Amino acid sequence: MPILSSLICALSITGAVGSSVPKAKQFSQEFRDNYSILKHYGGNGPYSERRSDGIARDPPASCAVDQVIMIKRHGERYPSPALGAGIESTLSKFDPKITYTGDLSFFNDWSYYVPNKCLYNAETSSGPYAGLLDGYTHGTEYRDRYGHLWDGDAIVPMWSSGYGRVIETARKFGEGFFGYNYSTNAALNIISESERMGANSLTPVCYADRDTATCDGLTNTMPQFKVAAERLNAQNPELKLNETDVYYLMSMASFELNARASSEWINVFTQDEWVSFGYVQDLNYYYCAGPGDKSMSAVGSVYANASLTLLNEGPEKTSPLFFNFAHDTNITPILAALGLLTPDEDLPLDRIPFGNPYSTSDIVPQGGHFTIERLSCDKTAASEAGSYVRLVLNEAVVPFNKCTSGPGYSCPLEEYSTIVKGILPDYVGQCKVPHKDPKSLKFWWNYNSTTELNYRNGSVPCQEAEAER
């Protein structure tokens, strides 16, 4: 044996070089398919955090958050009545007298998770992904993260659009954030969803003719859905499923997770089929409520412009906390207005563009939220002291339009303001807001501070009404 090899062997035995027992790796080197069903059902199913760019969620050591502006989608819910009707139509093709086999063998003991039609559209209250639990848990997490912005004594307003499940999410979030003091220190303001609210709304609309040609022409079928239908029909010849039925069954599966701990329907469909389903959702959001409809940037400019005013006024003139609650299709226009996650080219209709930044399950899952942080930072070797802005989508920091010179890849407030002012369209002019309707968002500066709406009086009826104002 060579002298050097003999020396290494001896040192290894004595422990001078290291133990002869192999050690586990500190870091796994496996980054394989990054696949999760939670990223392929669009906006239908339970909340999951956004896949990040690797930027730390906590503020940089030289900075502290001094103002937060958040808008949150309601928590997990049951399907809408329209989707429910499609699901029920497909389920009617299943004969209860037949014993199903293959991928559908579980169906013999399965029951639909919506026990009463009046629960359609309602927020779920059962299962580990329940919508009401989502709201409460989010509130507790933000109390831990932003609790330093509340002195424990001040009355803090919150704003909810006027739809039942949105209001209930706001209430649960408030209970989580304020704890025992929710009944006395939160002041819930409910903003009507009427289109006549104009710009003074969390749910503004475009009065002008919209760019809906592509949206109107979208279908909910993909080639993979036909393959799935043929596979299930072959396993159970009594079935006569088609592509549309597969779409409804996959929708049903993703919504089932909102009410139950698991869904056996998930495994009925292949990974290719779920990827296709997720892209169908991406297309619908992109062309119907996102940057693919050119009017949506104007709609989103209402919130983006008003939040810019808050950031420049700062917490001393207004408030450090602005918690808002609305719908998925009220968040996507804001992102479009700010130019966030907009692809360089419109999404193709004939293929799936892998690497697509407009992944709906990362943008507006149930309970999804968009948070704007104002940072107060000390001077460092790399940056000046001052105010900076960070954008956070579903708890992942999203760099703003190449403006990343601040600590933690934030954007200096002055530069952020210049960029935003330069890209925001004119909502009033482009959307042709009627003369009598409000032309700007005012409720952040003109709000009630009573606790009258913190809780609903009386029982909550099964069917949610839009008109709790």
UniProtKB/TrEMBL annotation:
<dbReference type="Pfam" id="PF00328">
    <property type="entry name" value="His_Phos_2"/>
</dbReference>
<dbReference type="GO" id="GO:0003993">
    <property type="term" value="F:acid phosphatase activity"/>
</dbReference>
<keyword id="KW-1015">Disulfide bond</keyword>
<dbReference type="InterPro" id="IPR033379">
    <property type="entry name" value="Acid_Pase_AS"/>
</dbReference>
<protein>
    <recommendedName>
        <fullName>3-phytase</fullName>
        <ecNumber>3.1.3.8</ecNumber>
    </recommendedName>
</protein>
<keyword id="KW-0325">Glycoprotein</keyword>
<feature type="signal peptide">
    <location>
        <begin position="1"/>
        <end position="18"/>
    </location>
</feature>
<dbReference type="InterPro" id="IPR000560">
    <property type="entry name" value="His_Pase_clade-2"/>
</dbReference>
<keyword id="KW-0732">Signal</keyword>
<dbReference type="GO" id="GO:0009277">
    <property type="term" value="C:fungal-type cell wall"/>
</dbReference>
<keyword id="KW-0378">Hydrolase</keyword>
<feature type="active site" description="Proton donor">
    <location>
        <position position="328"/>
    </location>
</feature>
<dbReference type="InterPro" id="IPR016274">
    <property type="entry name" value="Histidine_acid_Pase_euk"/>
</dbReference>
<dbReference type="InterPro" id="IPR029033">
    <property type="entry name" value="His_PPase_superfam"/>
</dbReference>
<feature type="active site" description="Nucleophile">
    <location>
        <position position="74"/>
    </location>
</feature>
<feature type="disulfide bond">
    <location>
        <begin position="403"/>
        <end position="411"/>
    </location>
</feature>
<feature type="disulfide bond">
    <location>
        <begin position="63"/>
        <end position="377"/>
    </location>
</feature>
<dbReference type="GO" id="GO:0016158">
    <property type="term" value="F:inositol hexakisphosphate 3-phosphatase activity"/>
</dbReference>
<comment type="similarity">
    <text>Belongs to the histidine acid phosphatase family.</text>
</comment>
